[in-house]
Write a structure and sequence with these properties.
about 30% strand; three-stranded antiparallel sheet; 3 helices; about 30% helix; alpha+beta; three-stranded mixed sheet
Length: about 140
């Protein structure tokens, strides 16, 4: 891969801070109440969900241009779950893609599947975690 951009961030665990190298991201981290924390900060699952949703939506716009379909009224919500997986923990994602009526049916399905094949986050997760695509 020929890198066009590299992001760097430093964190000191789920109870601490995450800071990007350029200072644009500087967040308190906290365990969510469901995992026994106080929830007074963000967590890695929220950050991953935000990044994946943003990347998928941008990828969908690029794929839409290729397919000559308008995606401006589409939106993407990534639901990232963490849970026990054998001796450790694992992740799963439900990618909820809300499409306008003009993209209902086969056109929308093809768009979402092509986006999933194109999106860098989808490529990174493929074969590693379960990702379910839900078209709404």
């Amino acid at each position: 891969m020929d890198a066009l951009y590299t992001a760097a961030a430093t964190a000191n665990g789920r109870e601490g801070r995450a800071v990007s190298s350029d200072g644009q991201l500087d967040l308190a981290l906290a365990m969510p109440p469901a995992l026994g924390g106080n929830g007074k900060g963000t967590n890695p699952e929220q950050l991953f969900a935000a990044g994946y949703a943003a990347c998928f939506a941008s990828a969908m716009a690029a794929v839409g241009r290729e397919l000559k379909v308008d995606t401006k009224d589409a939106s993407v919500t990534a639901e990232v779950s963490i849970g026990k997986d054998g001796d450790g923990f694992g992740l799963a994602v439900i990618m909820r893609v809300e499409l306008p009526d003009s993209l209902a049916g086969e056109t929308g399905r093809k768009l979402v599947e092509a986006t999933h094949a194109y999106c860098p986050y989808s490529k990174a997760t493929r074969g590693n975690i379960d990702v379910e695509l839900v078209i709404e």
